[in-house]
Amino acid sequence: MNKAGSFVLFALLAFSAFAGAKNYWLSDVSVACDFSEDGSADASEVYTFNFEGGFSYAYKDFAFGNWSYSQIKVFELADGRIVSELKPEITAEGRDTRVTWRFRSKEEAEGLDELDGYYEERTFRLEYRLEKAVALYDDVGEFYWKLWGGDWEVGVNGFDAEVRFPHALLNVSNSIYCDCNASWTVNGSTLFVHSEGIQERTFLETGLSFDKSVFPNPVFARIERGTLSEKLAAEEREAARKKQAEEDWKNTVDSVKPVWLALVVLVSAASFWYFWDKHGRELRAAGTSMVREIVFDGKPWEVEWLLRQKVSVNSLTATILDLARRGHIGIKAVKKKALFFEGTDYEFTQLKGKDGLDYVEEKIVNALFGGTDGTTSLSGLRKKYSTAKSVFSSWEETASKDLDSSKFVSKCIGYDGLYGFNAVQFALLLGTLVLAVLASPFPELAWFVALAAAFVIIPFVTFSIYSSLRKKQVKLMARSEAVLALGFAFAFLCALASLLDLAVMSSVALIVIIAAFNLTVFKFVLSRFTEYGLERYNAWKGLENFFNKMNYLKEKLPSDVVLWEKYMVYSTAIGNSDRIEKEMQALDITPPHYRSMSSGRVGLASSFSSSFGSFASSSGPSRSGHGGGGHGGSGGGGGGGAG
């Protein structure tokens, strides 16, 4: 209310939240106020509720102001007569005073368990003493009061108010403020106000001025300095000032919107360049030389990820070949005759091996020989894993988890550029949210968005800071996935609260699109090799260069059979094993561990690689779809020629 007055809000709750659907509406409301010569009044309010479902208590908030309430009582009526007095519970609710009363619902008295569709009508009467509600100025008296509050979630079908003064009203002027069909009359000393219906969240105010001789002994009236006309003029000036301030603020915000959108574009572009130049561009050229030796004893999936930034069935097949090279598996090609053609199957035998197995290799061996006597075949594996998920059908997921758990990726790649850029994007996202709140034509909804966002952001930032202090590798607040998720969350909240401003939504959309690109197209641009990673990248990239140029080299190629066995493993992981096999054929080199893998000397392991790769790609009920590394928004390779 304008002068606060008495603001009514009834909250009707059931005994159980699961008791069924609940609803209520108001059929009739009547307000009566009987003033005495001293300015005090005995007031009453009668509410007739229609309940669907079980309700057990209600409350009213008496609004804080220059007036006061006392001697509050609550009654229940039936047929216009008091049937019981209900004990009010008086508590503080902020600056307001809350009066709560409890009543026994009829379905409780009748012992009903099922409340769906249950209906009853209840009438309550509130009585209280009201003081300082009338203001007396130098010229006239005024009763400016909100007879019906605008916070009701339901409307009322019929509303009547009757305000009685101690003497006849003279020089009367009255105004009704209500977005509804309401009328008023003054008859002698009484003001009557009537409305056929008031919609939900609609208030009804009366502003009545009169000759102040109505109150000859105004002990409980407010004595105001100046005249009412001066007060109204001051209020009009203040209202005009506020309106102008709101218009100025709106114009300022409207002028900031395109500037902010341009700022988001410029800051995003500038910060992307800065973090790429400082943390993404390689300090020196990588992977340009040729390397003949196997410098590091890397796992096939580590080599593939380092060179391709993904893992595929190539590294799985290479791991099988590596297990054969190290004596853990025996592989033999077996001719099988079909109806019209002759095919090749592969038999696997479990061996003791020359060294130990890591976790991923153990999973592969168990998948090959689990539930067998140590022998199996490729055709048997096809039947076994036609519907069951295995390490073969989820290889990308298995290898990616190992890359994460072994911290191989974090050892090889520095993420400072990506994290720094995403931190800037996170700040721009927060700034956009602030702009959305300030630019909203619906302040209540805007603050709802701000509050909801705070519930998301505060735990998010707290956890990120905690993780950083604990020196973990999480850095959640600066992950592309986090920026993308928060961007969608903010867009959803803005849409929910009708904050669909073009500049705001364009800013959020731009940030979300950039985050999506950082997760896909640009996911390795803002990262740089560490010394550890660059050393290994150069070694493996140099070996790949050697494989690619091997048939063009004039100098003599190595003839060490053990080295060629390793060449076969890593060329399979890299994806160019055919070149190695051609050179092995030309040099008449057949590594002993691969002799039985082909029906003839020509082809060596290529036929096995093709067959096993086809099996791994099609086995299991579904594909995992992982792209590698387990670091969707992070990664390595750099923007300066690492690939």
Please summarize what this structure is.
The protein is built from 16 helices and 21 strands.
What class, by secondary structure content? alpha+beta
Q: How far apart are the first and last residues' alpha carbons, in Å?
A: 69 Å
Taking all Cα atoms into account, the compactness measure Rg is 41 Å
Number of strands: 21
CATH fold topology of the largest domain: Immunoglobulin-like
The best one-word shape is elongated
How many helical elements?
A: 16
Topology (SSEs and partners):
Blueprint: E1 23-35, E2 41-52, E3 57-62, E4 68-78, E5 81-86, E6 88-93, E7 96-102, H1 106-109, E8 119-131, E9 135-136, E10 141-148, E11 156-164, E12 173-178, E13 182-187, E14 190-195, E15 204-210, E16 222-223, H2 228-280, H3 300-308, H4 313-325, E17 329-337, E18 342-350, H5 359-369, E19 375-377, H6 378-384, H7 395-405, H8 408-412, E20 413-414, H9 416-439, H10 443-469, H11 480-496, H12 502-519, E21 528-529, H13 531-549, H14 561-574, H15 577-587, H16 606-618
Parallel strand pairs: 1-11, 9-16
Antiparallel strand pairs: 1-2, 2-8, 3-7, 4-5, 4-8, 6-7, 9-10, 10-15, 11-14, 12-15, 13-14, 17-18, 18-19, 20-21
